[in-house]
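Protocol step 4 of 6: record predicted structures for both targets in the notebook before any analysis. Target 1:
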Amino acid sequence: MSFAHTRSLPVRAEAAHLVAGLLVDESPQPLARIATPSTGVQLVARFGPGVPGGVDVHVLGAQRRVRRKQVAGGHRAILLRLQPGMQRAVSGASPASLVGQVVAVGDFWGEVAGARLREALATAPDAHTAAARLQAAILERARAADGARGTGSRLAFAIERLQVSGVAEVARAAGVSERQLRREFHDTLGLSPKAVARLERFARALRDAQSSDAPGWAAIAADAGYYDQAHLIAEFNTIAGATPNALLAELRVAAPVGWSRLSSPSLPAAPATPPAPVA
């Protein structure tokens, strides 16, 4: 059986306000891979004989669906996940415009800047150096951007509460209007509160199922916030294009890509009590 190797890399202190997490993902042999949905925007640098020029860099927007692909042997990728609210500063595009998109970084930064970054990554002697150069590049881009801001605890609180409550109730609990809460989700993640809650339920159900040798789907559905097992099955079919058991069978063969949890490391932990309203 072929195996993939994924490990975390440290984020530079000066880039922590921009970068939520860094991973190096390697496929020594040809391998089927599965990427679960993500609410975050990522920069993905790919290295390997199957990549034109040996290296490319793309901006990957939030994804609403499971994606499947075949990865060539000798493939390496550095996945840099941006902090919510920092997508525009780094890419120049709004989070909403990036949802479901994979765009070459040169399309945002210009071909000269994109070529310079690819050359810097191609000459890096190891993954740590390549990751450091990728962070240096986004720091340089962000310094020229105005209005970059991260998210606070209210968004994390809202996402947690949306698992069991409607948008209007969550907005009241967070001390903001429903309109303001929807705007914060759109401006920060490019997704509606309902869309984020849907993806979070899916992620939680999938994690619970993978932690059991014989998952009980009715109990998993209840714990994850679905109405019932039928609701869970319908959502898996929509998001993954497969039944829950079929997706688990795929994941036993096709290694997952990236982070397993949707909201972390991008979002701060949800506070136990509502954040104080903003005056």
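Target 2:
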Amino acid sequence: MKPPYQPDPLGPDFSQLVLPQLPDYEGAVQAVLVRYLPTPAAPNVGAVLYVHGFNDYFFQREMAAQYAAHGYHFFALDLRKYGRALLPHQRPNNVRDLSEYDADLDAALAKIRAAGHSRLVLSGHSTGGLITARYAARHPASFVALVLNSPFLALNQPWLQRKLAAPLAGMLGRALPNLPLPAGLPDTYGQSLHQAYRGEWDYNLAWKPNHVFGVNAGWLGAILRGQRQVRRGLELPLPVLVLHTGRSAGGRQWREEFRRADIVLNVADIRRLGPHLGPHVTMQAIPDAVHDVFLSAPDVRAAAYATLFRWLAAQVG
């Protein structure tokens, strides 16, 4: 009988655990929990579960090492139909309601608690930020803090698309969930990250391609319903940190400013909607960061980690 955790592509410091889930409208489903094996260098202050964004998966070795250096046991979750969890018969990122991810999070947290961790920090990036915020609102007693990295709280589209076309497509998603839609993201963000292009990071381009995976109307409807919940107010009772960059930029042709701006989301939306998460939200801009703050230039992400762990020390101890 093989041990439950298996070797992970990130190397000997990591292992992974497949979390089988009930089949859905595409068939068999799984999520994959990743753990960082080295013992935290500082006194144990708890554990963190990190959830990736859209067109994404967990590959940030540095993030795991940073949390361990500050006393946290580190875990990350590849959600169903992403990264390690993507099965051959599945369409990437294909969900019809964000609550479908609850089973993935439930299973991951059950394993983390079974390992003896009860003081838990939940963290999410971009779409993972929207997913984890909604989950924490339904399970507030499960976590001591929520950390969001450029959460996807609103569509970054022109007014007409945002107010008319997208809601119409989202409504169509109820009846025609597989109706394909353009994702609308340029490949310049991926170029700014991957070392094969203009960036410093090495990751699996089959799991995080520069030309992002397509989306369908069911996915868009799920996102819009989740974002409406945020606009109405989630009333999270726990402390929440919202990290974001100082400014956004746009355009499909490469510009050097893309290395120090969010070219995926509108930072003004994050600033406007972040306070809707609850009464204990700390909004923190990280100047010159990219969309994924912890994939920014070395000096910028060093500042982001310093901000994160000062905040956690004040809120969690």
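Step 5 preliminary note on target 2. The chain has a mean pLDDT of 94. DSSP finds eight helices and eleven strands in the chain.
Proceed to step 6 after PI sign-off.
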